[in-house]
Amino acid sequence: MHSLTAYRDQWFGNIRNDVLAGLVVALALIPEAIAFSIIAGVDPKIGLYASFSIAVIVAFTGGRPGMISAATAATAVLMVTLVRDYGLQYLLATTVLAGLIQVAAGLLRLAYVMRFVSRSVMTGFVNALAILIFMAQLPELIGVPWLTYIMVAAGLAIIYLFPFVTKSIPSPLICILALSAVALAFDFDLRTVGDMGELPSTLPIFLLPDIPLTWETLMIILPFSAAVAAVGLLESLMTASIVDDLTDRPSNKNQECIGQGLANTATGFIGGMAGCAMIGQSMINVKSGGRGRLSTFCAGAFLLFMIVVLGDWVKQIPMAALVAIMIMVSIGTFSWSSIKNLKDHPRSSSVVMLATVVSVVLTHNLAIGVLVGVLLSGLFFSWKIAQIFRVTSSLSDDGRHRSYKVEGQVFFASAAAFTAAFDFREALERVTIDVSRSHIWDISSVAALDMIVLKFRREGAAVDIIGLNQASETIVDKLAIHDRPGALERLMGH
Fold first, then answer.
1. Which of 37, 132, 172, 328 is at a distance of 20 to 30 A from 224, taking alpha carbons?
2. From CA 427, how far away is CA 479, in angstroms rounded?
């Protein structure tokens, strides 16, 4: 855990900007929380309460200051079937269990798996999210009065031009205030936040999910909880890495897992749905000057205050203002340099990036896109390493002893080439295999070594293996069978 001084600085080191950024984020969270509730098939207050609870709790317990967590589409889509078949109470129980799974993942330090996510996958993830954020605004831009386009354009102009006047106030906040004032003053007929759904007028209360505590119930909610926990952590850790890069400050990924879990567990007990980190809102927060835990806390606290106390005013905010902000986020999130780099970067890296983008956009599932990217990265890496491999040999003057020198990594992708490099039909009395410049990695390479040794022995040659490093010697001693009794007979039997 952070030292007390560092933790205090994360709260109070950037008070003014954090408070203002939190206000902007809270306004942008309202329509999204309502929309995600609709996706999951529950009342809007479920998503709104969740966004408040998750943001406030993660502010205290998370490992990435300045990152915004709330109800999200990524977790909402996983609950559609559960809500339809079993109802709201099972969703709340699923949220509690998903949180406990995430806490366990953090305690087990499973966040280390992020090291296997390549830069190409990260870039694809960011670009796909930018596209999804923009696509999510299309319903507010299709089949609407022409005045909507003028308001959105005006909002974008304010967002991008106001910083030239002053940067003391976040331009997205000015966008919301200015467009709301104009829409109210001239009584424009525009879609508003109130059109998205009804805002709750009471505070959330503590409740226990009303479900039977049986093994059957656990078997119903466990698959959903595991999926929600996995997708939530994946999106949260990816978003944390992006915010790390934007702010040049590292985060504690395992602490973030624990924080997300505690937030989801608590949220299930106040009638909220599961959530995770939000790349779009986090980008709004960072671009509005938010850096510390206070910005995340203010986002949740302002959200609850606005829907319960200022609900009548918040309902009148034109959606055009929020659409303009999200378009700004989409443009700022997309890695435009990645398009230019397509012709300069290795082809495999570009394929991984594009495959991640396409998978996420087509499925609207971040987990699938990242999984595709990670798998392709692993395949391309294995293929490249398998190519950096060769076996050379030299024959003694008397023609009875051949020495083979193996260079490179011997593993499942290079095992076939390893075996094919030896000539078993050559009449030899002795064979030496020098592996001092190679590494034996897995069971496939050990099996290949077994086959080589046994085939030479079958032809009457004595075989010496020299140069095994400590790790290779350990796996060979443990798994190899060529020196065990009956090994040659088993080979002959095949």
1. 132
2. 29
8 Å CB contact between 25 and 281: yes
What is the spatial distance between Cα 213 and Cα 204, in angstroms, rounded to a whole number? Answer: 24
Query: In this predicted model, what pLDDT tens digit does every residue of 377-391 receive, in sequence order?
Result: 999 998 888 888 899
For residue 173, give every residue at least 6 positions away whose Cβ sits within 8 Å of its Cβ, in sequence order, or none.
20, 23, 24, 27, 288
Higher pLDDT, 485 or 92: 92
Residue whose C-alpha is closest to residue 236's, from 114, 137, 355: 114
The 10 Å Cβ neighbour count of residue 181 is 10
Residue-averaged pLDDT of the chain: 89
- Specify burial of residue 211 (Cβ count, 10 A radius: 0-12, 13-18, 19+): middle
Q: What is the 3-state secondary structure (H, E, C) of the chain?
A: CCCHHHHHHHHHCCHHHHHHHHHHHHHHHHHHHHHHHHHHCCCHHHHHHHHHHHHHHHHHHCCCCCCCEEECHHHHHHHHHHHHHHCHHHHHHHHHHHHHHHHHHHHCCHHHHHHHCCHHHHHHHHHHHHHHHHHHHHHHCCCCCHHHHHHHHHHHHHHHHHHHHCCCCCHHHHHHHHHHHHHHHCCCCCCEHHHHCCCCCCCCCCCCCCCCCCHHHHHHHHHHHHHHHHHHHHHHHHHHHHHHHHHCCCCCHHHHHHHHHHHHHHHHCCCCCCEEECHHHHHHHHHCCCCCHHHHHHHHHHHHHHHHCCHHHHCCCEHHHHHHHHHHHHHHHCCCHHHHHHHCCCHHHHHHHHHHHHHHHHHCCHHHHHHHHHHHHHHHHHHHHHHCEEEEEEECCCCCEEEEEEEEEECCCCHHHHHHCCCCCCCCCEEEEEEEEEEECCHHHHHHHHHHHHHHHHCCCEEEEECCCHHHHHHHHHHCCCCCCCHHHHHHHC
Amino acid at 205: I
Q: pLDDT-based confidence at 128, cuts 50/70/90?
A: confident
Contact 406, 435 (CB under 8 A): yes
pLDDT of 93 over the 60 cut = yes
Cβ proximity of 480 and 450 under 8 Å? yes
Amino acid at 445: S
Q: What is the pLDDT of residues 184-198, one digit of tens each?
A: 999 898 888 888 777
